[in-house]
Design brief:
7-stranded mixed β-sheet, 398 residues, 4-stranded antiparallel β-sheet, 13% strand
C-alpha cells in the first residue's frame, strides 16, 4: 500500500485552511459520524425509546465496538470491551492485577507516564492501605527496576510528551519472568503504531478512543484482558453491567464469565455509536502501512523544521523505531508559538514546560500538508510572530 492509498482525507470533515497536526490529542470528525449520531438520537432513541436497548442493539454495542478495536491492537475477539474513561480503566486494571499478586507491594511505572495514570494508582494505594508503593524511575531505567518485589508493571507505551516508544515485548517478557503482572496504556499507540497484544502476552491493556481512533471528545475508553485470565480476575468496580445477569437484579455480585465483567455502568450509547462509526474508516487499512507512512511524514517534518528553525530543539527520539506517531520540539516560548501556529492554520498543542507537539496520522495528513506546515512553522518562529501578547495569554486547555 502506498502513501496515497493510506490517505483517506475525504472520510473526515476538516476545516478549509487548516493543517491538523493534533490528532494525537483529539482526532478530527469522521464525515459519517454526524449522520450516525443523528440516527442514534433521532431514530433509535427518538422513535424506539427504551426499546432501542434491544431493537437497536444498544446492550451489545460496548462489546461490538471492543471487537473492532481488538483488530487494531492485535487482540482476539472477545478480549476488549469499551466504556467509562481511561482513568477508570487504569484503576480497574491495577486493582485486579494487585489481587493477582497479593504478596507483592511494588507498582512500577515511570516518571514520563501520563499524570492521571499515576494519580489513579496513588488513590488506589491510599484506598486499600496495604503497604503498596509506586515506583517511578526514568523511562530508560524501568527495566533495571524489575525484580521479584514488583507486583505490577504499568506503563504507557508511547510517551505523551516526547513520543518515546517503550519496547513492549521486551519489557513484558522481563516483567513476567520476574513474576509481575503487566498493564500497557495504549492511549498514544492504538491507531498509531502496529500492536500485537496476543504475541506480547501482557495481561492487561487500556486506552482511550478520542485520539487516533477519532471517537470524539469524551469518547469511551477500552480495556483488554488476556483471554486465559479473564475468568479469574476480580473487578474492584463491580458494576451492574459487569454482572453475569444484569437484569436478574441479584443483591450479590456475580461477575460475567467474559470480558463483560470489566464493564461498570450504563454505556454512553451516543458516544459509542459515534466511535463505532469512526472505526469504519479503518476498513481495509493495514497498521504496518500506517506506520510506514507515519514515519515518512514525521521524518519530513523533523528534517524541514531543523533545517529552517535552529532555535527549536528536537525533544522526540531521533530514531524512528523508538518514536511513536508524534514529533515534539522544545522551545522556551513554546506555548506562545503554538498559539501563533494555530492562528496561522497549523494546529498542534503544548505540554509544559516547553514542549510543542505535532501528531501525524496518515489517514488525513499527506506530504503536501507537511511541506506547508514546515513553511508556516518557519515563518512563525523565525519572524517572531509568536512574540505577541495575545499569544501569551494562557487558555484553560493548552
Amino acid at each position: 500500500m502506498t502513501m496515497n492509498t493510506v490517505l483517506r482525507k475525504e472520510l473526515f470533515n476538516l476545516p478549509d485552511g487548516v493543517i491538523y497536526l493534533d490528532g494525537n490529542s483529539l482526532g478530527p470528525l469522521p464525515a459519517s459520524a454526524l449522520a450516525r449520531a443523528t440516527k442514534t438520537i433521532g431514530e433509535e432513541w427518538g422513535q424506539e425509546l427504551i426499546r432501542a436497548w434491544n431493537s437497536a442493539g444498544w446492550m451489545s454495542l460496548p462489546q461490538r465496538v471492543g471487537d473492532k478495536i481488538a483488530q487494531l491492537i492485535g487482540a482476539p475477539a472477545g478480549s476488549v470491551t469499551t466504556g467509562d474513561t481511561l482513568s477508570i480503566k487504569v484503576y480497574q486494571a491495577v486493582a485486579a492485577a494487585l489481587k493477582m499478586r497479593p504478596d507483592r507491594k511494588v507498582i512500577l511505572s515511570d516518571n514520563g507516564n501520563f499524570p492521571s495514570d499515576l494519580y489513579m494508582v496513588g488513590g488506589l494505594i491510599d484506598t486499600i492501605s496495604s503497604g503498596h508503593r509506586l515506583l517511578t524511575p526514568s523511562p530508560d531505567q524501568v527495566a533495571d527496576h524489575i525484580d521479584e518485589t514488583v507486583a505490577v508493571v504499568m506503563l504507557t507505551q508511547v510517551d505523551y510528551r516526547t513520543g518515546r516508544l517503550h519496547d513492549m515485548h521486551a519489557i513484558t517478557r522481563k516483567a513476567q519472568e520476574a513474576g509481575a503482572v503487566v498493564i500497557w496504556d495504549l492511549a498514544h499507540s492504538a491507531g498509531a503504531v502496529p500492536l500485537d497484544l496476543t504475541g506480547c502476552g501482557a495481561e492487561f491493556a487500556v486506552g482511550c478512543s478520542y485520539k487516533y481512533l477519532n471517537g470524539g471528545p469524551g469518547a469511551p475508553a477500552f480495556i483488554y484482558v488476556r483471554p486465559d485470565v479473564i475468568e479469574s480476575i476480580e473487578p474492584a468496580l463491580a458494576g451492574w453491567m459487569g454482572h453475569d445477569a444484569p437484569f436478574g437484579m441479584e443483591l450479590a455480585y456475580r461477575p460475567a464469565m467474559s470480558i463483560e465483567r470489566l464493564r461498570v455502568g450504563t454505556p454512553a450509547i451516543v458516544q459509542l455509536s459515534i466511535l463505532d462509526e469512526a472505526l469504519e474508516v479503518w476498513n481495509g487499512v493495514e497498521m504496518s502501512d500506517i506506520r510506514k507512512a507515519s514515519i515518512t511524514l514525521s521524518e519530513m517534518f523533523i528534517a524541514g523544521v531543523e533545517s529552517r528553525c535552529p532555535g527549536l530543539k528536537l525533544a522526540s527520539p531521533r530514531q524512528s523505531d523508538i518514536r511513536g506517531s508524534q514529533v515534539s520540539f522544545a522551545f522556551e516560548h513554546g506555548y506562545a508559538a503554538i498559539q501563533a501556529l494555530i492562528d496561522h492554520g497549523v494546529i498542534g498543542d503544548f505540554r509544559a514546560p516547553d514542549i510543542m507537539r505535532f501528531g501525524f496520522c496518515p489517514l488525513y495528513i499527506g506530504e503536501d500538508d507537511v511541506t506547508n506546515a514546515v513553511e508556516i512553522v518557519a515563518k512563525v518562529i523565525n519572524d517572531g510572530l509568536w512574540d505577541d501578547p495575545k499569544y501569551k495569554k494562557k487558555l484553560a486547555v493548552t
